[in-house]
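Risk register update: the risk of archive-format incompatibility is retired. Evidence:
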Amino acid sequence: MSGPSIYHWGWMRRPDARIEDGLIIDGVKAEPYHPGEYQKDILNAIQRISDEATALDFTRQWGILGLATSAPEVEDHFSQINGAITFVYAARKKENPDIDIKSIHREVLEFFNPNRGCNLTPKGEPISAIIHFAQRIKYLSEAKRLLKLYQEDETEASYEAEEWISGLSIEWRKVFDIENIEFLQKQYERGCSNSDFYHYLLSLIIKATRFSFSHRSERGVWVQLYTSPIAGRPEGHPVIQFDGLFRFIQYILLVDGGPSPKRCADPKCGQLFFPAKADQEYCPPPPGVKRSRCENRHGQWLRRHGISKPKLKKWTT
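Archived output:
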């Protein structure tokens, strides 16, 4: 039996999404596609998110991330509403035994969603949450890149890893569960002396993230037996389903054998990207452009200074 596949899971592009009150709102248009066919493109697109404009560009090209409608968010929201209905109904029933629970239900729903009445679907996705998620993915991508660099140049990897981890804010160290560096140093010295300390920290970041992603409280990934809408197509093979595009992005980044990032060879860029080919050394071009802008810029600089383009190391993906 074949293993579960991500290639039949579908999502919606939102080409006419808009910004309203700090939220990205779905438009009328919805274009279905399969994210599994565009893994590196989506990972590269998430690297470009830094503000409202780039968050909107991502949504129009790849769809809403789904942070506001994830399984835990929806279930927690409904639990709060059900608890409020039960409490209010019990309190009011003491004063009025004939009270109609439907009126209580309507009142509570309007309290939780004053602008949308009984419609409990979130109005949109907070841009601040999108930017925070994108930053998290950028940091995880860098941790993954550095771990791979350890296999090629341990000295350089150790230097870069120390510099990167030292530059992380306290808030992000807490996110990745490495805020107590002194304690981790002692723990490392007791039982992990065969590897570099910063390699150890990078491994902890990836392990902690995988643990939180896989925790049963998340309830955002499941396997479904695929049913083809077209008669005559094979059915019954397992398909991995996600409760949002954000969950899919985490999965392809964290799964063993997933895409590996590189750093752009243009010194004026230096951003992370996920290469489509093993010998790709520059960021991919933006949508609708044929040639990498980073490669063009660096090539022009080299020619102006009479420098031959160096032969760069090829990376496996």
